[in-house]
Amino acid sequence: MNVPFLPTCGEVHEHLTEYLDGAMPLRRRLAYRIHLLLCHACSELARALRALPGFAKRVLAPPPAPAPPEAQRALQETLRILKAKPKD
Amino acid sequence: MSTAPPSEAEALARAAGGDAEAFETLVSPHLPMLYNSILRILGEPADAQDALQEALLAIHRDLPRFEGRSAFSSWAYRICINNALMLRRSRVRRREDAVEDLMSQEGDDGRPRETGAFLPWSTEAEAPAELERAELRAKMMAVLNRMSDAQRAVFILRDLEDWTYEDIAERLGVTQAVVRQRLHRARLFLQERMRPFVLGRPR
């Protein structure tokens, strides 16, 4: 999309996180907002970038469990080292 | 006479004095959280175990310097994240070759894919409706492993661990503008490769 006074799709693509963070000055933010209202592709990208952190957290979250065996082993090994070490 | 379990403050003081049992009392309630934070960065339980052990030793070593300005769990969490990031830096490179093997080197027409071409699973036509979460997770880890270290670190700290830009900038020794730029690149990288799933509803 190329409309005078509005950012191009390329510019939106480049600075979308800055816009979504609310880190732009007002005039620029408004221009981006209008672009997003008019441009389906960019508004879809904005939707995806907004959804990404929650999506990544859900996908990468380890299944809930009490301290897994690896964590217990790390603790037990640490305690063994601490007990073997003379106090400073 | 039997005594009640020591409070966190008591356990802190005793652990700082070298009492290993008090240290166990102190860290045990937070162990799953600490371990899971590390696992999210490293991806492999064996690596996470090593990193957690190193982090626990660092926590113990630095206990006398803990001033109580934040919760013990937050302070310990930071140490764990730092250790995991350092370990990741040294280990992830070794796995990249293996990850590369998983990526198709050729397109459907038999010609080599362009650099940065979408991974096979990112095309709508191939997106299975019911991808198992574990499979999706493995795919996302593979994409994360293909990011630059700088982008990956920022993405993990900001989008997975919810650090502020200010804290990330301080930890990485760059400006907040650079953090935002790296985050944006990382999000675009991930979004392009996980596109069919991001706005869907993964199980």
Commentary on this structure:
The complex is a heterodimer of chains A (88) and B (203). Chain A is built from 4 helices and no strands. Chain A is an all-alpha fold and 88 residues long. Chain B is 67% helix and 0% strand. Chain B is mainly alpha-helical and 203 residues long. The A-B interface holds A 13-18, 21, 23, 45, 47-49, 51-53, 55-62, 65-68, 70-75, 77-79, 81-83, 87-88 and B 18, 20, 23-24, 27-28, 31-32, 34-36, 39-40, 45-46, 48-50, 52-53, 56-57, 60, 133, 136-137, 140-141, 155, 158-160, 180, 183-184, 187-188, 190-191, 194-195, 197-199, 202.
Largest interface (CB < 8 Å): A-B, 41 and 45 residues
Report the uncertain regions of chain A: none
Shape of chain A: elongated
Helix tally of chain B equals 9
What's the story with the biggest beta sheet of chain B?
A: none
The separation of the N and C termini of chain A measures: 67 Å
Task: Indicate the multimeric state.
Answer: heterodimer
Helix content of chain B: 55-70%
Shape of chain B: globular
Name the helix and strand elements of chain B from N-terminus to C-terminus, one letter apiece: HHHHHHHHH
Amount of beta strand of chain B: under 5%
Query: Per DSSP, what share of the residues of chain A sits in E-state strands of 2 or more residues?
Result: under 5%
Number of helices of chain A: 4
Please, what is the average pLDDT of chain A?
88
Backbone CA Rg of chain B: 21 Å
Helix/sheet category of chain A: mainly alpha
Mean of residue pLDDT values of chain B:
77
Structural class of the helices, strands and pairings of chain B?
mainly alpha
